Amino acid sequence: GSMPLVDITSRHSDENSTDESDAVDVDDEESEQPEESEIILQEAEAEAGAGHEVPRLEQKKIIRNIFAQDNRIVGDEWNLISTFWFSKWREFVSFDVSSIEANSANVLSDAPGSIDNSPLIQSSGDSSEVKIRNQLEYDVDFVVIPPRAWNFLLKVYGGGPAIKRPLIQKYIEDKAHITVELYPIQVKVMINTDGSSESWEFSETATIESLIAYTCRQKPSLTANVREYKLYRYFQGEKREEYEDHSATLQEAGIHDGSTVYLEAT
C-alpha cells in the first residue's frame, strides 16, 4: 500500500513545480518557442562557425527570434552596429518584407560583406580602446542590437569592431525610454579641503553617492578625519543649493555634461 502513496506525492510535487513555471510563462506554446529557436540558433552558429553559409531566410528567422525574445534591461550592454551595414543586411535577407514577397523581390541584392563599424569610431592609434565618434545619431549612424544578434552576425560575416554600450533609462518628455548611453558626461568637481578641482567622466546614471566615493578614491587626502560629505551645485564661482538626496542619479539631480559641483568635506 505504501508504494502508490510515494508515487502520488512525488507526482504531486512535480505538478507543483510545473504550476510555478506556468505562472511565470502562461502560454505553453510561447514557452516552447524560445527553446526551438535556441536550437535553430545553435545549429546556425555551428554552421557559421564551420564556415558554411547560413541561408538568408534562416538568418532572417534567427535575428527576428532574437529581437522578439531579448528585452532591453537597464544595466545590460547592447551592441552598436553601423546603420549602413545593417541596412545592406536587411535588404539582403528581405528583413522587412513577407517571405512571399521576398521570394519574388530582392533576390538580386548583394551580400553585405563583413560587418564594418568603422564609420562609428574615431581612428585611434591605440586599437585596444575603441573610441566612438562624437555626435553619432541613432538610426542615422547606428542601430542598437542585442549581444546575441551581434554574436550571430559576427559568426556569419566577420568584421567589427565590437562596440558595446550600457542601457540606461532616460526620460524624454516625462516618458521613460530605455536607450543606450553613448557618451559619459564630464563633471568638474571642486574640493573644499585643498581648493583643487578635477574633471572626471561619469555615467548619467551614476548616483551622487558614487560620485563622492569616486572623488574620494581619486583624492585619498579627502578621507582623512572626515565625518561627512556634502555636495553642492556650483555656479558662477559660488556654491549654490545642496544635493541632499545622495541616492539620486546625476540625471535626476540635473547634473549634465560640463556641470561643476562643489564637494565639502567636514
Automatic annotation (TrEMBL):
Region annotated Disordered, chain positions: 1-38
Compositionally biased tracts (Acidic residues): 16-38
Matching InterPro entries: DUSP-like_sf, Pept_C19_DUSP, Ubiquitin-like_domsf
Domain DUSP: 54-168
SUPFAM superfamilies found in the cross-reference section: DUSP-like (SSF143791), Ubiquitin-like (SSF54236)
Lineage top rank: taxon: Eukaryota
Entry similarity comment: Belongs to the peptidase C19 family.
Protein name per its UniProtKB record: DUSP domain-containing protein
Species for this entry: Vannella robusta
